[in-house]
Amino acid sequence: MSQPMTGAAKDKRIDALNRAGGFNRVNGIVILDWQDGMALLRVDLTADHLNPLGLVHGGLYNSMLDVALAMCGSFRPEPDDLYPGLTLSLTMQYLSAMRLDDGFATARARRIGAGRSLFFAEGEILAPNDRLVASASGVFKPGRPPSA
After folding, report:
1. CATH superfamily of 12-141
2. pTM here?
């Protein structure tokens, strides 16, 4: 079963990313774990995540998986900063719906292959009872510091 969100991340760089503004914060995306080859995210669902039918909008699943998959192949050990990768291709499958009373959604991603300049990743969105909600696969460029 997916675990509820607890306290601060072990890696202080993740805490800093979670406190930063921007897309993740606006959409409620919280990084739970980021290690070499994997990433784990969570969103606590609110009424702002619902479509006109009262279901969680598929765009939230897409955004969560885009972020998680781009992260999983771009981890760097301390003292380096963390930079998510760049999405080149993302293919989504929407498998079941979530409702507000599900409480939260979890995105789990893993790198499944890599070359010198690209990596391949897959992942899924899970409801709290580990029901599979959506899955995705994609091709990414590893993250690097922005050029000055």
Report:
1. Hotdog Thioesterase (3.10.129.10)
2. 0.90
